Amino acid sequence: MPRFMGFVRMEEGVGTPPQELFDAMDTYIGEQAAKGVFLDGGGLYGTEDAVNFISRKGEVSRVDGPYAEAKEVVGGWAIMQYDSLEDALADQQEFAELHAKYWPEVTVISTLRQISTGPEEPGA
Fold first, then answer.
1. CA dist., res. 100 & res. 72, Å (int)
2. Where are the alpha helices (DSSP H) in the chain?
3. Exposed e or buried b per residue across 48-87, where buried means at least 16 C-beta atoms within 10 angstroms of its C-beta
4. Can you tell me the distance from the alpha carbon of 63 to that of 83, in angstroms, rounded to the nearest whole number?
5. Angle 19-34/85-102 helices, nearest 10 degrees?
6. Can you give the pLDDT at residue 66?
7. Pairing mode of beta strands 72-81, 38-43
8. Sheet harboring 72-81: ordered strands across?
9. The whole model's pTM is what?
10. Which of 115, 86, 106, 83 is nearest to 8 (CA)?
11. From CA 105, how far away is CA 103, in angstroms rounded?
12. Using one digit for the tens of pLDDT, what is the confidence trace for 87-110?
């Protein structure tokens, strides 16, 4: 069964999501976990304590947050597995619709990427 990683991205500093979204996500994730789809995931704190290690031209440097240039950040992540890509896409749309319904004032980008298990192409 293919595994996928989902991300939610949004502007930094938009505040805490409304309780209604937390409640809807608890129900949604509980249902997905019961079906064996949701494997792991969670929200992320802001970038104020983030650390980046940058590898450039054979040298590694460390850059600590906060990052004034950060306009958009990853706010959460999930590891999921599905029987098919079609199932994954349908589920990701449902996930995005929860954010649209319960937090409409914030632009949230829901990204889904298949996890590679080797050198093969996605969907293989």
1. 18
2. 19-34, 85-102
3. eebeeeeeeeeeeeeeeeeeeeeeebebbebebebeeeeb
4. 40
5. 160
6. 66
7. antiparallel
8. 38-43, 72-81, 3-11, 109-114
9. 0.80
10. 106
11. 6
12. 999 999 999 999 999 999 999 999
